[in-house]
């Protein structure tokens, strides 16, 4: 039994390519894998009901699914496995049923392997679901994707899912056809994965295989179909009838084998063996294996595995080539592609020390023996390389390849290793090591510091051989006091640090930078940082002016550019004979000996006494006393020996001055002492001491360059460069660096000072090293320097002034800072006189005598006149004063609008000179261009805000009260002239308003008047009609045509599929059609074809002899036939014609009569037949009663009688004749109507001519106004109107639409109609006479004595025919009566010849039209003359502007007006229009008379020209 269960399902078979396993219901045998989330009665019996007809007694039942279904014991069990089969063994239906009222229910099938799923069928016991989703999983339930959505209303239930038909086979859509509430039972849902309506090009493509492949299938029911009662009542008894119930579920599919198996066996672990079960393990062919044949068999991987196709099985062919070193391989797609799709097998687990895709190479650390084939098991030999010096622990080249430089067995040395076995270091390297990736370390000797380049270091220790001044393991460092390692012979250079600027002679090895003292810079510390300086040797100078002592005065000496300043400070201390000075010294920087020097003028004996110094030693009193002689020829004296000073001590130096060689004091003897100077004894400093060569050189340089001597006298001479360097070194030692400049920011030009001495650059009249004090004779130290005192020599006691205020010491009677002013009330120093101010001021200018602060409203040099706003005579003695001007209020009030006023001596009136914007004798009204209420207190006049668009000098240019602009210029408008007037656009604020350029035929009619249209006042854009665009509305929008229509342009409406594009011809609207299509919009067939272009177009093939045109009706194909021709192709004779086409001749005239009656009868009979059919169908006559039927029967009998009447054709001919006569009468009436229409047109033409005359008169009036007023703005407007009027006049006398042309056409039609109708009537009468004669001749020749009226064939006594007569009503009588009527009608027709009156009337129309043309000629010449005059006027104005002597204001006004003129047409266009008018006039008659009539207009034009010249 077990072996039978292993037998696969019946094979479906294989083709030349793919194999097809058997297909069946995947549910069979998988009841355990089928689950549902809701089943009724699992926990106990529950009641449910059905929706049935009222006559069925049983409506509610019980569901108990606690036990599986059994047809005998558990028939009420409705588990999910019931859906696998439709019926049980007894033939009864079984089903699965969900819990009552539950909407979200899922049914899921879990498969043990991958299967092909083709379609699904569900048969429902109840309503089908209102919404459900079918989903699949191909990864055993980890992820799910939807197949299809179903809903009764897809848009509402699944709004994001498209509810449309399939376009692609894998589209996810929502369907509505399986979700209706009908039927209530046995409804089916069918889903096919591959919809037959969608063609599948490749059923084995990855997309299709992925679409069919499933491991799980899930059906989600999301909404129940109900009758709606559950919406109002959710009780359980209502919900008992709403649930899901399925009779049968079929999931069709097969095992998934990619076309490599035709049979399937059970999957291992699945023991179910049910009949019809589809198993999941493929029995693979084509050298494949796996549960789904998803891979090739071992060692068959040289080509890629692929799914089988219909004609190609894609067998896994070709065993892998492993050169005998392996029996396993795998497929690699990258290798397959790299080999050009020829081989993709890669060998696994290569033996015999081989490797590679085909085991064709030796493993690392092995190489191929050149004497053995690669298939030899001993082909690979071990490498012999030093593992310390070679790569990867001793690897060698595995084979020989000369292109890549490989030699079989050759060792690959590390970068710094050499030798056949890689066992020694290269030159310049040392320390062979296995851990070093490079093998050996580089010596790293600095090439600049070593002696030998070929062997820079020891190969064992790595020590380098260094140059003389180079040290370090790598010879990369300089010796102390050396720097700059280089290729020089010595290797490094000496530091050479400045002995004073640097702390020592050591420097940085790389840059040579020395260690500088404070504020010293440079590599050698020999330069001073900006803002700092080196102290000179006489830096410690103590001014005698600042010393203390009795009988000592300060003498300031002014600095003059013509004299050399030989002193320091402001001046000298003036010391009397026997007196002395005491100097206090407390700023010693360095403990050392200093030479004491005194700078002075004339001779005296001096004793200098100094205190003792603790550090420098306890000196005896005699050692602290200096006695020297100050000689007249010298200006300084140096003490005989130096003195030792220390920092942080306070020294007092007392000096007594006495005349040499006398014992008593002289009261008038004195000496001028400049300063006391301490000069350091520099030989005690480092750099100068000792016997070192550098020290000796420094001392020699100080003497050679006389560096010390430069500081003994004042001013100091220019220092030599060597002195500057040595002085800076000395200063750096004394002060431990450079000193700050500390230039006074107010007295100096910048913050920098001299490098030696520290002298700042002082501003004018500023002295001192720091520029911090004023020079003698100046004052007011500040940002601009100091100001010279300039004390007046006559009024001042001294040239010196107060240093702060600058006040000079004045003599008696002098005043002012400089002592150069008179006393108050006087002027003219030094000859002071009283001020002359007419009693209106007390003070005056001290130099000019101009009075200051005039009182009593006076002004002037002597207060001799009234200030503005007052009038009178304030001169002393005149008896008058200054009075306020009444303009209209007093000055100082809020009602004073004047500048000044004056009294008129004759009228004794006050006349005000008004402020700008005011006018009137009292300035009580606003000037032109201003507005306000100046007559009221507090009122004022403001400029009218008209944006410079009015003439402010013109009265009334704006409202004087409101300020509203009234006379806007430059085509502006508005209360503020802030926008362009209608018909103009632009920026009114810059006087740039231009005429709108709208094209009237494209602009909305509502904004156009008399040929002028309004546009947007800002942009100039015109309001276009529909589908019209362009700045000027001058073109149709894209894809539109027919410009100039009232409704705008029409859309092209070209067919999107049949036209080359959406555009069309702008004038005809014709679209550009694709080949095979035609019609205006390409919606029809091409020319000479007909039919529906979407289906088929057929050729018209109209017969050229019988058709009017070659084009037939585009829909029906019917050709337009000539008279007497019929047929679709117009190739047959028409009804009523006889003969062989194309020779078709009309039938006898009686045929038409009979044919008309027969057609009418046939139509009536068809109607009767239709009515009878309706009666027979429904039994009811539609809209017909018995009366109507009887009436119809009566009429039918009459028709039958009429048909049977033997001589009815005669009466018919007579009736036909009467009908024709009636038609002639109607045509005559129509002619009369046309006559009335012509009269109406002529009346309208006369009205238009009267309007033209009125327009001409109006234009004459406007032209006169223009020529007299000079307003050039109207020029372009009236010129345009004149051209438009001219066009209307031309249109009224020429062209296809003119009244004259219409009248001519009407006359021609009338005459033609008269001739045609006359001939037709004559032919008709002749035909009637012939018919009557034939009738008479065809009658028998007998006598009728008993008949008074005679009859057919009757003759009278003379043998003449006797038929009819007076009182006879027979056929002949009636015919004769008709003949008489015809004769009378003929007479009436003949009388219509009187229509010549109409021709006469037409001649009158022509004459009136000639008059119109005459007036048009006059108007043309009139406007031509006016245009010439206007152009002459413009030329004259321009000549005036070019003349010399014209004032600027007039030129500006005239230029603005003239340049604003812009004619709408140029001279060339006007000339062409005139030429066209002249061409029209050549066709006219009576030109001489026209010229005579216009002579008066020419005389008027000449008068206008004279007026224009006068206006100029």
Structure description:
With 1512 residues, the protein is an alpha+beta fold. Among the domains are: 1-21 and 257-319, Tie2 ligand-binding domain fold (Beta Complex), CATH 2.170.300; 24-256, Jelly Rolls, CATH 2.60.120; 552-683, Jelly Rolls; 996-1051, Laminin (Ribbon), CATH 2.10.25; 1059-1148, Laminin (Ribbon). 23% of the residues lie in helices and 23% in strands. The chain has 18 helices and 92 strands. Strands 1, 2, 5, 6, 7, 8, 9, 10, 11 and 12 form a ten-stranded mixed β-sheet that branches. Strand 7 (131-137) and strand 8 (145-151) form a beta hairpin. The longest helix is centred in the C-terminal third of the chain and has 62 residues, at 1208-1269. The model is unreliable at 1-10, 1203-1214, 1266-1275, 1338-1343, 1385-1402, 1462-1467 and 1484-1491 (pLDDT under 50).
Helices and strands, with pairings:
Layout: H1 2-6, E1 23-25, E2 34-36, E3 46-49, E4 60-63, E5 96-97, E6 105-124, E7 131-137, E8 145-151, H2 154-157, E9 174-175, E10 187-192, H3 206-212, E11 213-223, H4 236-239, E12 245-255, E13 264-265, E14 281-282, E15 288-289, E16 295-296, E17 328-331, H5 333-338, E18 345-348, E19 354-355, E20 361-362, E21 366-368, E22 380-382, E23 417-418, E24 424-425, E25 429-430, E26 441-442, E27 470-471, E28 477-478, E29 482-483, E30 493-494, E31 502-507, E32 514-516, E33 520-521, E34 527-528, E35 532-533, E36 540-543, E37 552-556, E38 571-576, E39 580-585, E40 592-601, E41 604-609, E42 625-630, E43 636-638, E44 643-645, E45 651-658, E46 670-680, H6 693-704, H7 721-735, E47 739-740, E48 748-753, E49 760-762, E50 766-767, E51 773-774, E52 778-782, E53 785-788, E54 826-827, E55 833-834, E56 843-844, E57 851-852, E58 858-859, E59 865-866, E60 870-872, E61 882-884, E62 898-903, E63 910-914, E64 918-919, E65 925-926, E66 930-932, E67 941-943, E68 972-973, E69 979-980, E70 984-987, E71 992-995, E72 1008-1009, E73 1012-1013, ...
Parallel strand pairs: 8-9, 90-91
Antiparallel strand pairs: 1-12, 2-6, 3-4, 5-12, 6-10, 6-11, 6-12, 7-8, 7-11, 13-14, 15-16, 17-18, 19-20, 21-22, 23-24, 25-26, 27-28, 29-30, 31-32, 33-34, 35-47, 36-46, 37-38, 38-46, 39-45, 40-43, 40-44, 40-46, 41-42, 41-45, 48-49, 50-51, 52-53, 54-55, 56-57, 58-59, 60-61, 62-63, 64-65, 66-67, ...
Helix pairs in contact: 10-11, 10-12, 10-13, 10-14, 10-18, 11-14, 12-13, 12-14, 14-15, 14-17, 14-18
Keywords: Basement membrane, Cell adhesion, Coiled coil, Disulfide bond, Extracellular matrix, Glycoprotein, Laminin EGF-like domain, Phosphoprotein, Repeat, Secreted, Signal
Disulfide bonds: 284-293, 350-359, 413-422, 466-475, 478-492, 741-753, 743-760, 762-771, 789-801, 791-808, 810-819, 854-863, 914-923, 1024-1033, 1052-1064, 1054-1071, 1073-1082, 1100-1112, 1102-1119, 1121-1130
InterPro entries: EGF, LAMB1-4_helical, Laminin/Netrin_ECM, Laminin_IV_B, Laminin_N, LE_dom, LMN_ATRN_NET-like_EGF
């Amino acid at each position: 039994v077990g072996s039978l269960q292993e037998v696969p399902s019946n094979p479906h078979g294989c083709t030349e390519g793919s194999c097809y396993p058997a297909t069946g219901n995947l549910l069979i045998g998988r009841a355990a894998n089928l689950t549902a989330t809701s089943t009724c009665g699992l926990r106990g019996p529950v009641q449910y009901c059905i929706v049935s007809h009222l006559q069925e007694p049983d409506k509610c039942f019980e569901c108990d699914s606690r036990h599986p279904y059994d047809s005998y014991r558990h028939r009420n069990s409705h588990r999910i496995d019931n859906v696998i089969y439709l019926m049980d063994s007894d033939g009864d239906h079984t089903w699965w049923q969900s819990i009552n009222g539950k909407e979200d229910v899922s049914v899921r099938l879990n498969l043990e392997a991958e299967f092909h799923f083709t379609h699904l069928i569900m048969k429902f016991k109840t309503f089908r679901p209102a919404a459900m989703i079918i989903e699949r999983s191909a990864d055993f339930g980890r992820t799910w994707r939807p197949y299809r959505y179903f809903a009764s209303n897809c848009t509402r239930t699944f709004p994001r899912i498209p509810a449309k038909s399939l376009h692609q086979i894998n589209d996810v859509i929502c369907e509505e056809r399986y979700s209706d509430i009908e039927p209530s039972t046995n409804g089916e849902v069918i889903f096919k994965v591959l919809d037959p309506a969608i063609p599948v090009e490749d059923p084995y493509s990855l997309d299709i295989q992925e679409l069919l492949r499933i491991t799980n299938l899930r059906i989600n029911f999301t909404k129940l179909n109900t009758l709606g009662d559950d919406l109002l009542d959710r009780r359980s008894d209502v919900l008992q009838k709403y649930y899901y119930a399925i009779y049968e579920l079929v999931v069709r599919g097969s095992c998934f084998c990619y076309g490599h198996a035709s049979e399937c066996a059970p999957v291992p672990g699945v023991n179910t063996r049910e009949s019809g079960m589809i198993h999941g393990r493929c029995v693979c062919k084509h050298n494949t294996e796996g549960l789904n044949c998803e891979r090739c068999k071992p060692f068959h991987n040289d080509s890629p595995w692929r799914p089988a196709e219909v004609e190609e099985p894609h067998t896994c062919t070709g065993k892998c080539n492993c050169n005998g070193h392996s029996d396993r391989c795998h497929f690699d797609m990258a290798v397959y592609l790299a080999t050009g799709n020829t081989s993709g097998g890669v060998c696994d687990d290569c033996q015999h020390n081989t490797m590679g895709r085909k085991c064709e190479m030796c493993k690392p650390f092995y190489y191929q023996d050149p004497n053995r084939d690669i298939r030899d098991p001993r082909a690979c030999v071990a490498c012999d390389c030093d593992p310390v010096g070679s790569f990867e622990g001793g690897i060698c080249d595995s084979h020989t390849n000369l292109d890549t430089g490989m030699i079989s067995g050759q060792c690959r040395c590390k970068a710094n290793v050499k030798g056949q076995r890689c066992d020694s270091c290269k030159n310049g390297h040392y320390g062979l090591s296995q851990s070093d990736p490079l093998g050996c370390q580089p010596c790293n000797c600095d090439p600049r510091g070593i002696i030998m380049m070929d062997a820079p270091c020891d190969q064992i220790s790595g020590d380098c051989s260094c140059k003389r001044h180079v040290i370090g393991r790598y010879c990369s460092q300089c010796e102390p006091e050396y720097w700059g390692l280089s290729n020089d012979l010595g290797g490094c250079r000496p530091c050479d640090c400045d002995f004073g600027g640097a702390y020592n002679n050591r420097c940085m090895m790389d840059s040579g930078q020395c260690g500088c003292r404070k504020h010293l810079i440079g590599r050698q510390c020999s330069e001073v940082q900006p803002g700092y300086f080196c102290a000179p040797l006489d830096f410690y100078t103590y001014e005698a002016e600042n010393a203390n002592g009795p009988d000592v005065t300060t003498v300031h000496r002014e600095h003059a550019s013509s004299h050399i300043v030989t002193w320091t400070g402001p001046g000298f201390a003036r010391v009397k004979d026997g007196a002395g000075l005491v100097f206090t010294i407390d700023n010693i920087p360095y403990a050392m000996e200093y030479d004491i020097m005194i700078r002075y003028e004339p001779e005296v004996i001096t004793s200098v006494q100094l205190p003792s110094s603790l550090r420098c030693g306890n000196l005896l009193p005699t050692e602290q006393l200096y006695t020297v002689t100050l000689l007249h020829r010298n200006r300084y004296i140096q003490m005989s020996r130096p003195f030792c000073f220390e920092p942080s001590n306070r020294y007092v130096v007392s000096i007594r001055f006495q005349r040499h060689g006398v014992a008593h004091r002289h009261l008038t003897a004195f000496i001028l002492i400049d300063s006391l100077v301490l000069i350091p004894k520099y030989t005690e400093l480092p750099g100068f001491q000792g016997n070192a060569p550098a020290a000796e050189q420094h001392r020699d340089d100080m003497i050679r360059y006389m560096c010390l001597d430069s500081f003994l006298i004042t001013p100091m001479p220019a220092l030599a460069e060597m002195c500057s360097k040595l002085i800076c070194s000395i200063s750096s030692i004394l002060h431990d660096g450079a000193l700050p400049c500390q230039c006074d920011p107010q007295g100096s030009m910048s913050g920098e000072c001299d490098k030696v001495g520290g002298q700042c650059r002082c501003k004018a009249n500023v002295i001192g090293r720091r520029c911090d004090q004023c020079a003698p004779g100046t004052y007011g130290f500040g940002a601009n320097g100091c100001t010279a005192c300039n004390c007046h020599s006559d009024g001042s006691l001294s040239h010196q002034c107060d240093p702060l205020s600058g006040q000079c010491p004045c003599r008696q009677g002098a005043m002012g800072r400089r002592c150069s002013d008179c006393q108050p009330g006087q002027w003219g120093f030094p000859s002071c006189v009283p001020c002359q101010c007419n009693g209106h001021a007390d003070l005056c200018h001290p130099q000019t005598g101009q009075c200051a602060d005039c009182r009593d409203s006076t002004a002037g040099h002597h207060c001799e006149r009234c200030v503005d706003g007052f009038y009178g005579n304030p001169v002393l003695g005149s008896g008058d004063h200054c009075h306020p001007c009444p303009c209209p209020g007093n000055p100082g009030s809020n009602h004073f609008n004047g500048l000044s006023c004056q009294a008129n001596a004759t009228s004794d009136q006050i006349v005000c000179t008004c402020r700008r914007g005011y006018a009137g004798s009292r300035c009580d009204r606003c000037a032109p261009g201003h507005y306000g209420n100046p007559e009221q207190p507090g009122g004022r006049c403001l400029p009218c805000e008209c944006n410079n668009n009015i003439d402010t000098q013109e009265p009334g240019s704006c409202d004087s009260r409101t300020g509203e602009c009234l006379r806007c210029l430059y085509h502006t408008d508005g209360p503020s002239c802030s926008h362009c007037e209608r018909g103009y656009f632009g920026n009114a604020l810059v006087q740039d308003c231009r005429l709108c350029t709208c094209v009237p035929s494209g602009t909305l009619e509502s904004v156009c008047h008399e040929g002028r249209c309004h546009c947007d006042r800002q942009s100039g854009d015109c309001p276009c009609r529909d589908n019209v665009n362009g700045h000027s509305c001058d073109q149709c929008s894209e894809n539109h045509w027919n410009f100039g229509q009232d409704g705008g342009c029409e859309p092209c409406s070209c067919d999107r599929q049949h036209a080359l594009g959406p555009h069309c011809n702008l004038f005809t609207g014709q679209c550009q059609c694709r080949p095979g299509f035609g019609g205006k919009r390409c919606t029809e067939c091409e020319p000479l074809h007909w039919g529906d272009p979407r289906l088929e177009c057929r050729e018209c093939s109209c017969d050229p002899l019988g058709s009017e045109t070659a084009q037939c009706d585009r829909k029906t194909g019917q050709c337009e036939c000539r008279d007497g021709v019929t047929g679709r192709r117009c190739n047959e004779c028409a009804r009523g014609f006889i003969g062989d086409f194309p020779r078709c001749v009309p039938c006898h005239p009686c045929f038409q009569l009979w044919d008309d009656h027969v057609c009418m009868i046939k139509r009536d009979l068809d109607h009767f037949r239709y009515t009878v059919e309706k009666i027979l169908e429904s039994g009811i006559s539609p809209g017909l009663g018995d009366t109507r039927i009887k009436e119809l029967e009566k009429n039918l009998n009459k028709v039958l009688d009429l048909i049977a009447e033997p001589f009815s054709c005669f009466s018919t001919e007579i009736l036909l004749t009467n009908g024709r006569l009636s038609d002639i009468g109607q045509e005559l009436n129509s002619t009369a109507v046309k006559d009335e229409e012509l009269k109406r047109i002529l009346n309208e033409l006369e009205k238009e001519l009267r309007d033209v005359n009125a327009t001409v008169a109006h234009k004459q009036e406007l032209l006169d106004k223009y020529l007299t007023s000079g307003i050039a703005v109207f020029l372009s407007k009236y010129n345009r109107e004149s051209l438009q009027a001219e066009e209307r006049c031309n249109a009224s006398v020429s062209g296809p639409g003119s009244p004259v042309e219409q009248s001519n056409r009407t006359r021609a039609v009338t005459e033609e109609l008269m001739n045609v109708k006359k001939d037709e009537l004559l032919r008709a009468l002749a035909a009637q006479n012939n018919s009557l004669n034939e009738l008479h001749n065809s009658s028998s020749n007998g006598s009728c004595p008993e008949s008074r009226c005679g009859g057919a064939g009757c003759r009278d006594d003379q043998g003449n025919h006797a038929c009819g007569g007076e009182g006879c009503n027979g056929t002949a009588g009636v015919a004769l009566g008709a003949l008489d009527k015809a004769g009378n009608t003929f007479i009436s027709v003949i009388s219509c010849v009187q229509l010549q009156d109409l021709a006469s009337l037409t001649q009158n129309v022509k004459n009136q039209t000639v008059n119109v043309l005459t007036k048009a000629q006059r108007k043309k010449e009139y406007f031509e003359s006016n245009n010439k005059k206007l152009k002459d006027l413009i030329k004259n104005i321009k000549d005036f502007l070019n003349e010399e002597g014209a004032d600027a204001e007039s030129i500006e006004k005239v230029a603005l007006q003239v340049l604003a003129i812009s004619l709408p047409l140029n001279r060339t266009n006007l000339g062409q229009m005139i030429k066209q008018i002249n061409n029209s006039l050549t066709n006219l008659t009576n030109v001489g008379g026209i010229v005579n009539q216009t002579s008066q207009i020419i005389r008027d034009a000449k008068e206008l020209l004279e007026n224009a010249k006068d206006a100029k």
